[in-house]
Amino acid sequence: MASATREQAGGAHGAAVFRALDGEIERMRGDSGGRTPRVLDVGGGSGTWAVPLASAGCAVTVVDTSPNALATLSRRAGEAGVTDRVTPINGDVDTLAEVAPAGGADLVLGHGLLEVVDDPGAVLRALAEATAPGGVVSVLTVGRYGAFIGRVAAGRLAEARAVLTDPDGRDGPDDRLVRRFDASYLRSLVAATALLDIGTLQGDGTLEAWLPGPGPDGEAAGRDERDELDALASTVPSLAEVAPRLHLLARRR
């Protein structure tokens, strides 16, 4: 069966991530006797993750530095009928404690965040501190080896070599990202927080380099089959390492 939150997001990429988040939301509801899950989406921008999670019944706070992105979030939340479950806040991860109470969220998202900040370790610790004991931090970031394979497949061999050999996995001086990650790097960041235990470390979009796009919206059956296979492949560690994105779920002690 397709993930409920993925369906609400329009069947976008991220099948493995949405499936994992669905499982966490259901666990939270069961553990709390049905209480509304509290989600904090840091750097959530225009609501790619926040609106589907609010549609799934969560109360979502989005912290982002861009007023334009937050305006788009508010518009999308209104169109989805979840304005009452989405709270936009103009703020920065460096001062997260000023806008998000410590231990105040059951699920904290840092998607597309660690690859662009100056100190990913400090940011991950801030995300952990905002998470309630027993809650979960979800990190989605760009994979080094998936980027390498993507550039090889595109014939951009000089960039591929740079991604593989640069200490931060960058493809050159004009790279818009500060760094790319492999699984070992993510594990070391989690261990350094001394606050989190890894529950899941998987790939996302594992099949993107090998399969064509899912096709028109009318081909839902084929899209679901592809996404099911992608989610399955993403849980295999050796395949997850070559996915374009890595997804981490870590539980707060």
Chain-wise SSE layout:
Blueprint: H1 4-8, H2 15-31, E1 38-42, H3 50-55, E2 59-64, H4 67-80, E3 86-90, H5 96-99, E4 105-111, H6 120-129, E5 131-142, H7 144-153, H8 157-165, H9 183-193, E6 196-204, H10 220-234, H11 237-240, E7 245-252
Parallel strand pairs: 1-2, 1-4, 2-3, 4-5
Antiparallel strand pairs: 5-7, 6-7
Describe the structure in brief.
The chain has 253 residues and is an alpha/beta fold. 42% of the residues lie in helices and 21% in strands. Strands 3-2-1-4-5-7-6 form a seven-stranded mixed beta sheet, with helices on both faces.
Notes on the structure:
The protein contains eleven helices and seven strands. The protein is α/β, with parallel strands linked by helices. The chain has one domain (4-143, 181-252): Vaccinia Virus protein VP39 (Rossmann fold, 3-Layer(aba) Sandwich). A seven-stranded mixed β-sheet has the order 3-2-1-4-5-7-6, with helices on both faces.
Q: What would the principal axes of the Cα set say about the shape? A: globular
Supply Rg: 18 Å
How far apart are the termini? 32 Å
> H/E series, N to C?
HHEHEHEHEHEHHHEHHE
Secondary-structure arrangement, i.e. CATH architecture: 3-Layer(aba) Sandwich
Number of strands: 7
Give me some keywords for this one:
single chain; Rossmann fold; seven-stranded mixed beta sheet; disordered N terminus
